[in-house]
Prior knowledge:
It is a single chain. The chain has 21 helices and no strands. With 432 residues, the protein is mainly alpha-helical. Helix 1 (3-35) runs parallel beside helix 7, helix 7 (147-172) packs antiparallel against helix 15 and helix 14 runs antiparallel to helix 18 (327-353).
Amino acid sequence: MTQASSQSRRAAAAAFIGTTIEFYDFYIYATAAALVLGQVFFPSSDPTLSTLAAFATFAVGFIARPMAGMVFGHLGDRLGRKKMLLFTMALMGVATAGIGLLPSYASAGIWAPIGLVALRFIQGISVGGEWGGAVLMASEHAPPKRKTFYASFAQLGSPAGLILSLIAFRLVTSLDQADFLSWGWRLPFLASGLLMCVGLAIRIGVDESPEFKAVQAEHSTAKYPVLEVVRDCWREILFAAAAVTIGSAGFFFTNTFMITYVTQYQGIARSTILDTLFLVTILQFLSQPCSALLAEKIGEGYFLKIVSLLCVVLPYPMFLLVETGNILLMTVGIAMAVITLSGLYAVIAGYMAEAFPVRLRYSGISLAYQLICALAGGTTPLIGTWLASRFAGQWWPLAVFFSLLSLVSFVGVYGLSRLRRQSTSPELVFVR
């Protein structure tokens, strides 16, 4: 095995493990927001108001992500991908463990939710800087024709992190309700400190991206990469952001809002939906690499168009099966939607990265991805909760909402594929 081949595999593994830890931290907050944070930090006589308040703090993390994408995109394109990844992982570990140490509203009053919002904001900063660097370390180390597959390992951290978070909360929700509310929910957050140490040890052993080192050697790094990418590649940013919409918002619809929907509005046991999502996420984890391999064979743009259109129609059978309350049928229904949208999620990272020049790439993909995460990902549980409350007993408004998110992705994929064809056409000169 050559040194380059060894580094390619190590970079992909480091991207996977690193994003697994980052997304574990992010998802345990999402799960806790659906299950417990409202009661601990925003107690109210109306459970819906408490849940909405918890989901509002969940959205705070997404508000931080575009700002973090600009800051870390600038630094990543100026100083390198590896340095940013080490810093963001340490930042996430400290913030997440800190949430596990916060006093409750009953103990500290208004300072408890203030501390929660502040640490959630830091979580958002960390993920906002992490994602772009992880994708690029994997794709820029990859062999020339395998960039989509290698970049998909950074995306594989999302289901892996969710699996870990679901296992953690499945264990602590087996506690007595009083113990769970008092200290049990804190354990998954405190475990983040240990995971952070593992992730840092792995990432230290990966070399800097060879494509970025080549840019440095040519002394062609951008002085103000964020300004340059917005000026020269604004169309790529907008279409890439639109393309990833259902890949971001769809997960928080099925894995965060769905917990609230089935427990509060369908009367289904909390353990049933957690077990269902655990099975679905295992299927997602297994299917994502297969999606990346299939996309490489049939063409990434063609694959992305197909799956985004499938996502438009799949929420309707999903809700019909969820309504049954049968764990097997619920798993089938949610899995159909999740496997499809995760196919888009697996492939879009490498596809959008290739739309930007290397010297501006960290800034470009970070701005695009974090912009849509803030606009769609963070607000999806809030909008879903509002729709469920407004149209109590009716699932079709929720399905229409999911379909609209999918249509945005299709438009984005179509536009991005046209721009990529133009930039590589010998008849057209695309000014960067």
